[in-house]
Specification:
mainly alpha
Length: 190
């Protein structure tokens, strides 16, 4: 019974940290009308895990035990740079995000289907919050605290750029820079 209580306690702590970070970032996502970006970045992150598992099946180890996390973070940061660049011509941001989501989902499923690592299918396709450990919660805190500090320090600028991009551009705000900061913090939290 004692281990069950610890299991639930760690899951609760992890869920609270995630809820705090995602609720702060979610405000900007809704204001900018890019609500699908969180799902797209999460899907890209999952495709990064699938890529790491597939590479491990081929005998290519990337970053040791932390390989899936490293590959996932790198792919997510590449997607962040792509989303924040804003140089996609006449294609609306939501369409780009939706296409990226679909492609990442397909690539992730294809890679995990070819992975030779044990029960990777179950790990990849379903998550369990009860799997959060104390170490995971500490990693979540290590990521969340700097992100929340950044958003506290630059609250006015991020909010202004999110509410009225054209006025912010007219007043000399670096719109792409603020977009990049928002997307980077969102990608790191995911």
């Amino acid at each position: 019974m004692f281990s069950t209580v610890l299991l639930f306690r760690e899951a609760l702590y992890g869920a609270l940290v995630i809820a705090l970070a995602c609720s702060v970032l979610g405000v900007y996502v809704v204001l900018r009308r890019i609500v699908f970006v969180g799902a797209a970045l999460a899907q890209i992150s999952s495709a990064g895990i699938a890529l790491a598992l597939w590479l491990a099946g081929l005998g290519v180890m990337v970053g040791g035990a932390a390989g899936p996390t490293i590959v996932s973070l790198l792919l997510t940061l590449v997607a962040v740079l792509f989303f924040a660049s804003g140089t996609r011509g006449r294609i609306p941001p939501d369409a780009t995000i939706g296409i990226t989501y679909s492609v990442a989902a397909a690539v992730g499923i294809l890679l995990i289907a070819k992975a030779a690592i044990g029960e990777a299918h179950d790990i990849f396709l379903s998550g369990n919050i009860l799997g959060i450990t104390r170490r995971n919660t500490l990693v979540l805190l290590a990521v969340t605290v700097p992100v929340l500090v950044l958003h506290t320090v630059f609250y006015k600028e991020l909010l202004f750029v999110s509410f009225d991009r054209e006025t912010a551009r007219t007043l000399g705000f670096n719109i792409r820079g603020w977009d990049l900061l928002l997307y980077l913090t969102l990608g790191v939290v995911i």
